[in-house]
Amino acid sequence: MAAFEGKVVIVTGAGSGIGEATARRFAADGHAVVLAGRTEAKLARVASGLPAERTLAVATDVADEGQAVFLVNRALERFGRLDVLVNNAGTAVTGPLAEATTADWRRVMGTDLDGVFFLCRAAIPPLVATRGCIVNTSSVSGLGGDWNMAVYNAAKGAVTNLTRALALELGRHGVRVNAVAPSLTVSEMTKDMLSDAALMAKFAERIPLGRAADPEEVADVIAFLAGPDARFVTGVNLPVDGGLSASNGQPPQA
């Protein structure tokens, strides 16, 4: 816990799922945590369980450049520094690309990609000052293709390569940039999938560990990448997928 004492972390998408678990993990490790998300009530619920003196909740739509910049500035005003940026906010649209609307495309790209760009750009100066780090939430969908998820694949694929590019750019300043690439994880975004027994049976066949991840399991890896044990790790898109990518998504042989 002492390793994180005095650090300041921004976590986007902190109102539920991986973001909530990540915020709770960093708070437990002694961080000051800035919770960002679009829904104030969700942020308030998460914040109520964290130390008030080390918690700040800021309602933020990361797809809005001005709000992203405001979020970074509020963190600096409240805590005086920034050590870790966790870009976790995300949304998805499913279905054939021919049926996707322009609004669908803009919504997913706005949250999943533009938000990462806006926040990284705003956070680079204070992160250079602290020799801090960035951890992005990409996806196994950003490492390969999925059926009926072309828009999401495109956004997460861009996050994957942006992570690599920023690691090259910022390494000389002592700033590390990595990403986690989860597979199916228990969250609000996946609740419809999790309730589909036939679909879950297929996932159980494809994922060597045989189940979806809990948000805390992804949060633990984010904490590792942000922490001192990963001090020589940068430019990595680390699958947190129960072995799915190792199997190339293929079902087990009979």
UniProtKB/TrEMBL annotation:
Organism: Muricoccus nepalensis
Transmembrane segments annotated in the record for this chain: none
Name recorded for this polypeptide: SDR family oxidoreductase
The organism's place on the tree of life at top rank: Bacteria
Location of the Ketoreductase domain: 7-189
Pfam families: adh_short_C2 (PF13561)
Gene3D superfamilies per record: NAD(P)-binding Rossmann-like Domain
Family under the similarity heading: Belongs to the short-chain dehydrogenases/reductases (SDR) family.
